[in-house]
Amino acid sequence: MTATVFQILGGLALFLLAMEMMTNGLKSAAGHQLRHMLGHWTQTPLRGLAAGFLITGLVQSSGAVTVATIGFVNAGLLNLSQSLGVIFGSNIGTTMTAWLVSLVGFGFNIEAVALPILAAGVGLKLIASNPRTRSLGEAVAGFALFFLGLSILKSSLETLTGGLDGNFLLDNDYGLPAFLLIGFLATVLTQSSSAALAIVLTAAAGGLIPLNNAAAAVIGANLGSTSTAALSALKATANARRLAVGHILFNAATGLIALAILPVMLWMVAVLADWLSMDANIAVSLALFHTLFNVLGAFIMLPLTPRFARFLGRLFRSKEEDSAEPRFLDNTLVTTPELAVGAVDQEMKRLIGLTRGLLRVCLDREDLKPAQIRPKTDACLSLNQSISDYISRLRAERMHLATVDVLSRTILTCRYLTEATVLAPALLQLKEASRLSQLDCLAEDFEHYLGLLRTLVAADSPQPDTFHDLEKAYHVLKPRMLTMIVKGEFTAIAGERALDDLSSVRRLCDQWNKSLAWKPGVELLNSSRQEDGAEKRT
């Protein structure tokens, strides 16, 4: 009995190793193509579903695809609707493992096929000079080990079944919830739904558990696969956490529906298996069941994706995200640009205030890292983009020339503020450089420069004198730092980095100072009308 348990654990370990080799090998062999597929084939939820299915089928790891998707959401490359489609497709793609196990893993001598494939894969990995070819060899070797691990699991579970007289679990009905929990825990512990499915399918094929209980365990394994997303999103952005919650809710809803109509689902599986002329074995039935309820869940949820995304968008709201939402841009004013100018003015005042707040935080807070200001940076950029998009939607054919001029100045100011926002981390890096022991001799110069920066950031209008003083301070700091690098008093790498930060901050000052010239469009339009009226009276 003990030897059999260790054999089961060894087979499971070999299976997990094989899955990792297949995933890593295929990801490396595919290179940037997988990134391209995930990043560019997801413009709609349906295309996202197709991309999620294809990539998961290729790399044989829904966890890897889910984590990659969360990474794209984290970086702002995918929105919630697109990423939800990928998650739905990934759930369907992970059913490929069940088909591999059920169709290839039973019915013939696995070792006779696996060992030559293993030899070919290892040979390719050792002989090939091209890294992508070596990665392909690793994937082929992993594919062979996949079946060897499955073979060990199969034989050891058959031994265990014989030792238990074949009826240990069949005669003791522990109920569907117990098997649901077993499938869930098996996936959470192994961090691989594929491994859990292999165990369930092998145990069912060996007669250890009946079909309905095995189906419940498959549902549990499907739900357990969400643990990877949950763990990877713990310290991620709010959007990434929303996606993880969406993944959990989708799998939970799909699992509950499948569990509620389990007899109907199993009847449909029997009908489909008969219609498709598939071998009537329990492993094939479970693979078909796994595919059926995932496809059913995906196509139920796909039309609801926009609403689902809006619901998730209300979760984990941060102060910065609320600030990033436009409050005055009314779509009903798009056809009357003169009235829209007032709404744009209100948002511009908020945007300038948000950007000023970001710059102040960077100047005044100590030991702040660039990652910590990212929420504020994203809020500024999001509101900035919303203003620009709104202006671009205004009916140009109905605009007076004065209105066109006012809105053009606003767009230009948005560009200034965008660059100032993007360059804000350079303030933190320059402050950090100024605290280096090598630059102690320039401490007063840096303090003077940062003091002038604070004055400029606090200003409500362009400050030519302050900006001039900042330029003078810049032209004092830069040559002194260059001299120190030449003399070896400051390392070249650190010196170049500090000079880059100094140049970035100089550019930031220029863009911020220009943005301070912005004036509300309504005031400009009113003064323009007054001037026109005065001219007519004279």
UniProtKB/TrEMBL annotation:
Keyword Endoplasmic reticulum in annotation: no
Name of the protein this chain belongs to: Na/Pi cotransporter family protein
GO MF assignments: sodium:phosphate symporter activity
Originating organism: Marinobacter sp. MMG032
Organism superkingdom: Bacteria
Alphabetic keyword roster: Cell membrane, Membrane, Transmembrane, Transmembrane helix
A biological process term (GO) from this entry: sodium-dependent phosphate transport
Regions crossing the membrane: 53-77, 84-102, 108-127, 139-157, 177-201, 248-270, 282-304
Record's subcellular location: Cell membrane
Membrane-topology annotation of the record: Multi-pass membrane protein
Cellular component terms per the entry's GO annotation: plasma membrane
